[in-house]
Amino acid sequence: MLRVSKLTDYATVVMVAMAESPTELHAASQLAERTRLELPTVSKLLKQLAAAGLIESRRGVNGGYRLLRNATEISVLEIFEAMEGKLAMTDCVEHHGACNRETHCQVQSHWRRISAVIARAMADMSLADLKQTPPPPPPRGKPVPIKIALA
């Protein structure tokens, strides 16, 4: 199954919480309470997000964390890569020579293309997009035609 890790999912939750008040300094404990995540988990996420240059950390009594850029300028791909590294569907997409079948593989280029499409979709979605209420899901199943007779 293709899915992001729990930490990456939680990192997006924390980033959205920070984006709701972008100029405010957020204490790790406040973010943990607001997102209902454990404080050690939030602290770990904040450290990784700061190391990736997505947020800044200020020490001291009035310290905390805040976004380094506007939420419209931070992509979902950047958050993903801050937590998981470069997006690659297979080892050979990420590292040339990682597979001994590479020289005669017929699908490697297709995995590269699939990885690129997913990366582009994630790059096109911003943190600001994640803050918005999503549209309702499309109806499931086949549409059933209904005839209404007007009297």
Automatic annotation (TrEMBL):
GO molecular function annotation: DNA-binding transcription factor activity
GO CC terms of this entry: cytosol
InterPro entries: ArsR-like_HTH, SUF_FeS_clus_asmbl_reg, TR_Rrf2-type_CS, Tscrpt_reg_Rrf2, WH-like_DNA-bd_sf, WH_DNA-bd_sf
Pfam families the UniProt entry points to: Rrf2 (PF02082)
The organism's place on the tree of life at top rank: Bacteria
PANTHER family in the cross-refs: TRANSCRIPTIONAL REGULATOR, WINGED HELIX-TURN-HELIX TRANSCRIPTIONAL REGULATOR, RRF2 FAMILY
This protein's name: SUF system Fe-S cluster assembly regulator
Organism field: Ahniella affigens
